[in-house]
Design brief:
2% strand; two-stranded antiparallel sheet; 20 helices; 2 strands; mainly alpha; 639 residues; globular
Length: 639
């Protein structure tokens, strides 16, 4: 079937609409903005700052391990480095950066003018930012967490970690969990209530499906991690004994709670990453995604099955064999829906005419790395092999292929794909190709030898090793590869800054995209859509040319669809599987209330850390003031 590619067709924003949606500039605008696009960009920028910090920590570790008995850092500093590297990548980069893309793109993709709860959205960002600052202050005071990013007890309790190092970790994880959870609730409500008229459930972009799956998994998984960290902090700060066996507690309870979150977390990251790939491949293959229903169903299946595999992280802990058999089987079954997506991507490219632009290259790199990471994942799902590989560098290689390669590569592809829409400037394709190939080579040179190191018996979490064990040259190769990979990521960072001044104008739809975000200007206006699009296709920009637009009518369910609704800061609310018009929702004006509330919560956590009642009191007062103002101010007026 031939496809219709549209040209620039963005709306002209009237002055009245621009005034109604405009936000203040400078510091006041920074602290009061509730626009989902600004919040999304802040998430992405802040997450990438933490990504490069975590990368520097990893490079220091690889320099230490490049040679036997190296003295670059000692064991205490090394423990802090690998704890903070893992904590940063999991809690401060992977999940938040995906949430950032979701924040920016989700309302645009479903034809909404903002998310369902814009103030809650801003609040989630401020909590994330303050949580990251809170955790990294530990380096400033010389008390960085040192018990691993997993914080296994009893090594992380007061008896074995008496300082405040692990309190930074425990309280920080609870802190950032607030941001993740409220953000997920916002995504769910936005998708199910804020879709433009006509966007039926079976017409949602696959990236939106992946965000829905991620959000539901977060809602069920992250509170369990919050409980795990909360009980740990109760043991540490208040002398309880949830994880103290001699007083009736259980160390395995912590592992069950942690990994009940920890393995779904892999798929919390994996689902949006695959959603990005499912958005990129059809556009650059000039072909509709093969097996749309199968791909959407596989995302839902992965979300469900992922909650039944956590015990495969605990095969060496003495869990009964019958239980291990069930979890081993579930760990193998989850490969099936993942494989469905893989074949859908191959089928799409097979029927299309792929263009090897940087976004497509990163998507293809993901396919290779995901395949290798998936194969090693099947291997460790087998109990006999897992018993041999547990706590070796084979596991380090496996989860980096999954969490780094199979997530970071789609994220970089998404940068090259959607950043022109966000900034209005194209990134350099030449630099993008250089970045991709250097990252791909560096990644595999760094992490593939770790499989061999693990099979040769090199344990995880060691800061040095003696010569003559057969590990020397493999560690040197891995360290060189790590440096090469870091160089590749740095090229993209340079590309982003270079493009802001020297990049070509992107235009509305530089790639010939098929979803609604490409129907706006680049960057999109504050109100997203002056007249809300009326959609009747999974590929509205390919099938509906020109794109139909709504008109404001007298009834509540239609008054927000046209120019009048845009002037009133309204967005449609729809219901049902077919997105039938239900009513209109008013988008709140900019306000500093989310910032004040998040700052108050930050003071509470600092007070808990240093046992300062005054600091906690200040935080409680600020938080209550923010909550009161949040609930009190419901009218919509200009600030």
């Amino acid at each position: 079937m031939s496809l219709l590619f549209r040209g620039p067709n963005s709306e002209i924003v009237p002055a009245e609409v621009e005034h109604a949606w405009s936000e203040r500039h400078g510091l006041i605008g920074f602290f009061t903005s509730v626009d989902h696009k600004r919040v999304g960009m802040r998430y992405i920028a802040t997450s990438f700052f933490f990504f490069f910090v975590a990368g520097l920590l990893a490079l220091v570790m690889r320099v230490q391990l490049a040679k036997p008995d190296a003295g670059v850092v000692g064991p205490e500093v090394f423990n802090q480095l690998f704890t903070m590297h893992g904590t940063t990548m999991i809690f401060l980069f992977n999940t938040p950066v995906l949430a950032g893309f979701g924040n920016y793109l989700l309302p645009l993709m479903i034809g909404a003018r903002d998310v369902a709860f814009p103030r809650l959205n801003a609040f989630s960002y401020w909590i994330f930012l303050f949580a990251g600052i809170f955790i990294y202050i530990s380096f400033v005071v010389g008390k960085a967490p040192d018990g691993g990013w997993f914080a296994y007890v009893p090594l992380s309790d007061k008896a074995y970690s008496p300082g405040i190092n692990m309190d930074f970790w425990g309280l920080g994880v609870i802190f950032v969990g607030i941001s993740t959870t409220v953000g997920a609730v916002n995504f769910v409500v936005t998708v199910f209530k804020m879709r433009a008229p006509g966007i039926a459930v079976n017409q949602l972009p696959i990236f939106v499906w992946s965000l829905v799956g991620m959000a539901f998994m977060i809602i069920f998984a992250v509170p369990v991690l919050t409980v795990a960290a909360g009980l740990l902090e109760a043991d540490r700060l208040f002398g309880t004994a949830f994880y103290v066996p001699g007083r009736g507690g259980s160390v395995l309870l912590y592992q069950h709670l942690f990994w009940f979150w920890g393995h779904p977390e892999v798929y919390i990251l994996f689902l949006p990453a695959t959603g990005m790939v499912s958005a990129i491949i059809p556009v650059f293959s000039r072909q509709r995604l093969a097996g749309y229903i199968w791909v959407a169903s596989s995302l839902v299946a992965v979300a469900f099955i992922s909650f039944g595999v956590w015990v495969h992280h605990m095969f060496a802990t003495g869990v009964p064999a019958a239980a291990m058999g069930v979890f081993s089987a579930a760990s193998l079954i989850i490969v099936i829906p993942s494989g469905i997506q893989y074949f859908a991507w191959i089928g799409t490219m097979w029927e299309g005419r792929p263009r090897l632009e940087p976004p497509m290259l990163f998507a293809l790199g993901f396919l290779v790395i995901f395949l290798l990471g998936g194969i090693s994942g099947v291997m460790v799902s087998s109990m006999p092999f897992d018993w041999q590989a547990t706590d070796t560098y084979f596991v380090v290689a496996h989860f980096h292929y999954v969490l780094n390669g199979a997530v970071v590569f789609p994220i970089f592809g998404a940068l090259y794909f959607w950043l022109p829409k966000m900034t209005g400037k194209m990134l350099s394709a030449r630099l993008g190709r250089w970045s991709f190939w250097i990252m791909l080579i560096g990644f595999n040179v760094s992490f593939f030898p770790m499989h061999i190191l693990g099979l040769r018996g090199m344990p995880r979490r060691i800061f040095t090793y003696h010569p003559g064990l057969g590990w020397d040259w493999l560690n040197m190769v891995a360290s060189i590869g790590g440096g090469v990979f870091g160089l590749g990521t740095g090229i993209t960072l340079f590309n982003i800054f270079w493009s802001r001044k020297h990049g070509a104008e992107a235009g509305d739809d530089p790639w010939g995209g098929d979803t609604l975000e490409w129907a706006t200007s680049s960057p999109p206006p504050d109100n997203n859509f002056t007249a809300v699009p009326i959609v009747s296709s999974r590929h509205p920009l390919w099938d509906q040319d020109p794109l139909p637009r709504g008109v404001s009518g007298p009834a509540p369910e239609t008054e927000s669809q046209g120019l009048l609704g845009a002037e009133r800061r309204q967005t449609p609310v729809t219901a049902g599987l077919d997105a039938l018009s239900e009513t209109s929702s008013t988008v709140p004006v900019p306000t500093a209330v989310p910032f004040v509330l998040a700052l108050g919560i930050a003071f509470v956590f600092v007070g808990l850390l240093v046992s300062a009642k005054l600091v906690m009191g200040i935080g409680i007062v600020a938080g209550m003031a923010g909550l009161t103002r949040w609930a009190w101010r419901t009218e919509v007026d200009r600030p």
